[in-house]
Amino acid sequence: MAEVTLHNISKSFGGLTVLPDLNLTVPDGSFTVLVGPSGCGKSTLLRIISGLEMPSGGSVRIGGTDVTFEEPSKRGISMVFQSYALYPHMTVAQNIDFGLRLAKVPAAERKARVTEAARILALEDYLDRKPSQLSGGQRQRVAIGRSIVRQPQVFLFDEPLSNLDAALRTQMRVELAQLHQSLDATMIYVTHDQVEAMTLADQIVVMKAGRIEQVGAPMDVYDRPQTAFVAGFIGSPR
Ligand code: ADP
Ligand code: MG
């Protein structure tokens, strides 16, 4: 597990300032959800935490270590995207195993980790199938399985359920909450879906135009919105 701290993070693309100056602490072991309208900078922030994007200024600490200039693979994080990016020609087991093979983890250890991930994600009966033979929810589980086997300290999710239909989204929400409990890891989860944010988060971060409007427990934010934007976005009674 690891705390993630962002200190004075800024990001500009050419003349466009996406994140002016952002400070945030993601507590060790929390399920922190970043929520806000499309284009407010959520993915950019996640990419900065993961190291896929360099901030223009400021620092990123994971587990107390400054990783601002550390390459993604050395940060102890794993990112799950909305498009699952599975390898179509590989089986489920091979897809889950792929990163471990690259990292040259010994074969017996790899097999044990793939088996454990499949158990957690209820994929035991699908290990020999190809992605094309799976449902959307099963594919998304395989994508999560690829993260789990790496045993990251921090999981980053960028709208992982947005390609799924409503019923499946609800089911996967429950599964993600269970996953958080069983893995005991820090999770940072991005969504533009308020309901998803409210049901998954133990800490919710409401963003607007690259700035944090409010941070708190979901019910706090709902009951005591600090700005009209937060009240409107979360749907607080007024
Ligand atoms: P969100 O994930 O909240 O929808 P993003 O972080 O994807 O928002 O984008 C925030 C803003 O930054 C948008 O205006 C987007 O167009 C811009 N942006 C993101 N990535 C780039 C990039 N590589 N180059 C230029 N502009 C970008
Ligand atoms: Mg995004």
UniProtKB/TrEMBL annotation:
Task: Look up the domain of life of the source.
Answer: Bacteria
Does the record carry ATP-binding as a key word?
A: yes
> Which keywords fit this entry according to its UniProt record?
ATP-binding, Nucleotide-binding, Transport
Recorded coiled-coil stretches: none
**Which GO terms fall under molecular function for this chain's record?**
ABC-type maltose transporter activity; ATP binding; ATP hydrolysis activity
Cellular component (GO) terms are:
ATP-binding cassette (ABC) transporter complex, substrate-binding subunit-containing; maltose transport complex
Q: Give residue ranges for domain ABC transporter.
A: 4-234
Family per record: Belongs to the ABC transporter superfamily.
User: What is the name of this protein?
Assistant: ATP-binding cassette domain-containing protein
Coverage of the whole protein, first to last residue?
A: 1 to 238 of 336
